[in-house]
Amino acid sequence: MTGTSHACSVERRCTGHGFTCASLDRGCVERARQDGLEVACERPADEGGTLFVYCPSGQVARDSSVVWILLAVAIGIAIVGVLVFIALLRKKSPLRTDAGREGT
């Protein structure tokens, strides 16, 4: 199996700021900790063992906040759509009352 088949979803996003270390590479792990990086995910290595993907702290939290913002925008758009729909229904309702008055 290749390493790319087990790639973590965050690995491509933080490669400019983070890096991948083998679990047995103490020098790499120590450098990541000195740089203030934390493990974002782990995946199996090609030759056995585990690879850890180190990213700046809060990287996953920032991605999560973007999702919440997009969800809030989508809900806001849905609410506006419902309000417009209700307003259009109320505009059409006087036509029904005018039709009822013609018979009297």
Write the layout of secondary structure elements.
Elements: E1 19-22, H1 26-34, E2 37-44, E3 50-56, H2 59-102
Task: List low-pLDDT spans.
Answer: 1-6
Main beta sheet:
3 strands, antiparallel
* Silhouette: rod-shaped
Q: End-to-end span in angstroms?
A: 82 Å
Model description:
The chain has 104 residues and is an alpha+beta fold. The protein folds into two domains: 3-57, no CATH class; 58-93. Helices cover 51% and strands 18% of the residues. The protein contains two helices and three strands. The chain has a three-stranded antiparallel beta sheet with strand order 1-3-2, covered by helices on one side. A hairpin with a 5-residue loop joins strand 2 (37-44) and strand 3. The longest helix has 44 residues, at 59-102.
Compact summary:
The chain is an alpha+beta fold and 104 residues long.
Structural key phrases:
single chain, 104 residues, alpha+beta, 2 domains, three-stranded antiparallel sheet, 2 helices, 3 strands
